[in-house]
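Worked example 2:
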Amino acid sequence: MQLLTLQFCNLKLCGHHKPGDPPFSLDVTPTKKQNSTGLTWSVGQTDRSLAMEALYRGQLSSLPSGWMSHELCLNSGIELRFRRGACLWYICVSELIPLILCTACLHPEPKERDQLLHILFNLIKRPDDEQRQMILTGCVAFARHVGPTRVEAELLPQCWEQINHKYPERRLLVAEACGALAPYLPKEIRSSLVLSMLQQMLAEDKADMVREAVVKSLGIIMGYIDDSDKYAQGFELMLLSLGDPSERVVNAVHQVFIPAFSAWTTELGTLHTALIPSLLSRIEKLLTQGEHGLDEHKLHVFLSALQSLIPPLFAVVLQNAPFTSRVKLHEDIPAIEVTRFPRPASPLQDMAIIIGSRELLSSLLLLYDHQLEHEGTTGWESLLWVVNQLLPQLIEIVGRINVTSSTCVHEFSRFFWRFCRTFGKIFTNTKVKLSHLLCLTIMLCLRGHDKQS
């Protein structure tokens, strides 16, 4: 059996290994003479795997007997030496992480726990994707076991210390940890300190991969925030990240942040009363100021955000329709046509995901088309807002664009194409009342996109 030899400075192991106990995973050599007996135990791969799996699931009670003792004490200054050379480093790290976290969970002294968690976050100089995942999985197991108070007091400071680390891989670990630990933090800390940390990294970090991770973690944070006063900060974070020079960061905004932010504003009831009107007002202001030179990049930023809000807006229309009480799920509901909706930028923008299931969406669409064709929109406030406020404002905005600007025409044409495809043919034919010229432009655009798709 291949053994790893680990030497822990000032390590004391107090325990009793009885005959018949499962083998332990460490060959331990104390660095100082102590009254306690130094024990040397070996481990088989099966026992290591079971122990790690139990730890990562937060099931400390499932650890093999004798694998962990609350009397195991680790101090700073871990030294490692191997009989088989550097090739054992990965195996060692995979076993050190649960060992460190188990001890940090159970150690009675706050100072020692802090040193252990500091070792955890500094264990690997430049952790790769798999190594970061190991550390994050361990942190989540730790958080589940110790609760929000200790996560705030012990884990979060380790993240804060590394927020400006010189290696981007370490800053990336911080950005990912903020999202992974979000469900286990006190809600006040989630919407204040963690949000501020991510905002600082989004504005200041020079590494694209770090800012991308920040945007994804912000999306997770938005899924847990329940403080309506944070809406303005969330909106500014959306605009800031949409203006990022990196394409991968902007893609993360559309794929993760905007779906999460729009879901939260839907809960607040501000998707169509605040978020969409705010974007429209910025577009109007941009067109007014750009009479002598339009900032086409900003126009693209605002219109792309507006496009990403079309699916959640349509979901609000369906979920607040007069026919929702008549929805029945049964086996003979026809499947949704593949071409019914534009291809979503991510699963979070898929209408079936937003609504809850493809069966529910299909049933709602049948009732939606029937309502529009036979019963009208009386009492349907969300759809009346689209027809009486959103569309007239969009038409007024389109009337201001410079038709000689191909970029501008293309951006608006693409928006109307996605809008009409999402709200459907019956809605487009009966509710979209535009001038003949604009109708012709949209029809030509729709035909062009249909040919491409």
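The longest helix spans residues 247-268. The first strand starts at residue 5 and ends at 8.
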